[in-house]
Amino acid sequence: xHSPSAEPIPFSEKEKPLNHHEREAVNSAKxxxxxxxxxxDRRAFLVSxxxxxxxxxxxxxxxxxxxxxxxxxxxxLPANVTIVQFGPDGKxxxxxxxxxxxxxxxxxxxxxxxxxxxxTRHAATERPYTGATWNLHDKGIYNCICCDTAxxxxxxxxxSGTGWPSFWEPIARENVVETHDPSDGMVRTAVSCRRxxxxxxxxxxxxxxxxxxxxxxxxxxxxxxxx
Length: 227
Hints:
Elements: H1 20-28, H2 35-38, H3 42-46, H4 49-65, E1 80-86, E2 92-99, H5 105-111, H6 114-122, E3 140-144, E4 150-153, E5 157-158, E6 166-167, E7 176-181, E8 188-193, E9 199-204, E10 214-217, E11 222-226
Antiparallel strand pairs: 1-2, 3-4, 3-11, 5-6, 6-10, 7-8, 8-9, 9-10
């Protein structure tokens, strides 16, 4: 659980994060193009039997790797983490061990815009169809708004019809952490930044081939770098 902000933050109606009931409604809905939304078996015509089988195996293995995050004390946080670094042009530089970034709540609050602070540090959910990148189709990479770690690439971005930036895989699996999230009366898979623990969004298994995944990410958790 994330503790509430020290003081209420004033938001415009457009910027105000979704409340509990709105989050439940959003997460019970399906993106445009999903099986339920179209009333069709999308796998019957989107992928061959071989691709469907491999995707199912991948999702099953991935689910088995998720873990329930135990309570963590600041003293128990890792001193260093290993991530994959990328240049501004999106080219991979290789793995590098870097210091894990941990700041006080007050420091994050001072550094970030109000909506980015609530989303990344308190796992809020921004309103769909807001921000600058949910409908952006330019070529580039999407970095963490908190620590500038590369998280997603425009090469895997797709139009999900949900109003949030959606990707079928992260730019490097080493750069994100996926954990079980039982909040809001639902069981989902939360996605966070490996280096600074920023909450990014959630990943669902209703995405397009080849992975069949949809990383539904808050726009306010990302910083777009054009290439």
